[in-house]
Amino acid sequence: MWEAPIGEPLELAVVAGLPPVPLPEHCHVEQLIWHGDPFTGPLRVCVASRGANVLTLRIANNDDRIVADVRVRRGPARTPRPHTLLRTELRPGVTYTRLFAVTKEVTTDHVPDAEPVLSTPAMIAFMEDTAADILRAVFNPGSASLGTWIGVRHSGPALAGQTVTVTATLADVRGRRYLFDVRATVDGREIGGGQVAQTLISQGL
């Protein structure tokens, strides 16, 4: 797959319900970005981008809808470097939930003759803030975090006056990088979900 033309289908056996890509020797999956459609039916794989040691594979179904992107890195998995930016070590599974009011300031009225709805940037900001709160609770003095990656789908509306419930769950820790699963709902109805990443920094740097 390291020599395959970008965009051309790879001759790989992809079976629904099983790991989607047989990896070459001495490679590992560094990141899987799932775009929401289920892994069902025949799937196609092609190379979306390539670097010296990193390859992004795109998985699509028969209707050419993108199912997932898989980032593969050549070589052993990188060992997380310890840091002292948090008072307490955080492990995957830590969850935090916040409520956000949908005010006029966070809505958009781009759709003619429709009520203003929560904007996608505002929803993402809610998600990032909720994820960051998990880290803020255990910051050491001088520590901070920045949002460094977003993979989110906005799937439903929230109207002015409604309340959005956002839940963030720590999914993965790699050194200073913390990956969170995030979900936003209104009255139990999902309006968005995906993943965001926060990276710890020292304010003295």
Topology:
Layout: E1 27-34, E2 43-50, E3 54-61, E4 66-74, E5 95-101, E6 107-108, E7 117-118, H1 120-136, E8 143-154, E9 163-174, E10 177-186, E11 189-202
In short:
The chain has 205 residues and is mainly beta. It has one helix at 120-136, and strands at 27-34, 43-50, 54-61, 66-74, 95-101, 107-108, 117-118, 143-154, 163-174, 177-186, 189-202. It has two domains: 1-77, no CATH class; 95-202, Thiol Ester Dehydrase, Chain A (Roll).
Task: Describe what this molecule looks like in 3D.
The structure is a single chain. By secondary structure, this protein is mainly beta. It has two domains: 1-77, no CATH class; 95-202, Thiol Ester Dehydrase, Chain A (Roll), CATH 3.10.129. It is 8% helix and 45% strand. The chain contains one helix and eleven strands; from the N terminus they run βββββββαββββ. Strands 5-9-10-11-8 form a five-stranded antiparallel sheet, with helices on one face. It is flat and about 55 Å long. The N and C termini lie far apart (40 Å). Mean pLDDT is 86; it is low at 15-19.
User: Helical stretch count?
Assistant: 1
Highest CATH level, the class of the largest domain: Alpha Beta
Question: Strand order of the main beta sheet, please?
Answer: 5-9-10-11-8
Strand content: 35-45%
Q: How would the global form be characterised?
A: flat
CATH H-level superfamily title of the largest domain: Hotdog Thioesterase
Which features would summarize this protein structure in a list?
mainly beta; about 10% helix; 1 helix; about 200 residues; Thiol Ester Dehydrase, Chain A; 5-stranded antiparallel β-sheet; 4-stranded antiparallel β-sheet; flat; 2 domains; about 45% strand
